[in-house]
Design a protein that fits this description.
Elements (H helix, E strand, L loop, with lengths): L1 H11 L1 H9 L2 E5 L5 E9 L7 E8 L12 E4 L5 E4 L18 E5 L14 E6 L2 E6 L2 H15 L1
Antiparallel strand pairs: 1-2, 2-3, 3-6, 4-5, 4-7, 7-8
Helix pairs in contact: 2-3
Length: 152
């Protein structure tokens, strides 16, 4: 019984939830039924620019992500950031076509650094129009920490 309570407590712990948010693998939902998977990763390729990337993949049927327009972040306090679209890096290995359900953005150092503890909203251009996702505190902290590390 005590083992079951420990496992349940561990799964429900806020620190575990924050760790999941801050890992760089995120599940996003806009409240209207549009879902995205997001992955932050370091791209290192001698043939193209290296750096931190944010890859988004539509998890909603039929949703297509834009391969040309940037990803927008805003903090509700008048600051906004535009992340360059790098979807051309997602070429499928067989036919050279960029997957319609995925897009990729340059997630390097955000200037100015987002204020710590301030919520961020992410706007993604898709076949369903502009979709807005409120980032969780752990996701915001991850972006803040990565950008803060770039400044040092």
């Amino acid at each position: 019984m005590s083992v079951a309570l420990f496992v349940l407590g561990t799964l429900c712990s806020p620190s575990i939830a924050m760790a999941a948010d801050s890992s760089g693998n995120w599940n996003l939902e806009d409240g209207s039924g549009h879902r995205l998977g997001a992955v932050l990763y370091e791209r290192s390729n001698i043939d193209s620019s290296a750096g931190l990337r944010l890859k988004l993949t539509a998890e909603s049927d039929g949703l297509k992500l834009d391969h040309a327009r940037p990803l927008m972040l805003s903090d509700g306090r008048g600051q906004s950031w535009s992340l360059a679209n790098r979807s051309g890096e997602l070429m499928a290995s067989n036919d050279g076509v960029t997957p319609v359900a995925s897009s990729q953005y340059d997630a390097g150092c955000l200037k100015p650094i987002p204020s710590d503890g301030v919520p961020l909203e992410m706007t993604v251009v898709s076949s369903a129009g502009d979709l807005s996702f409120a980032l969780s505190p752990g996701q915001v902290q991850t972006l803040h920490s990565l950008t803060d590390a770039c400044a040092n």
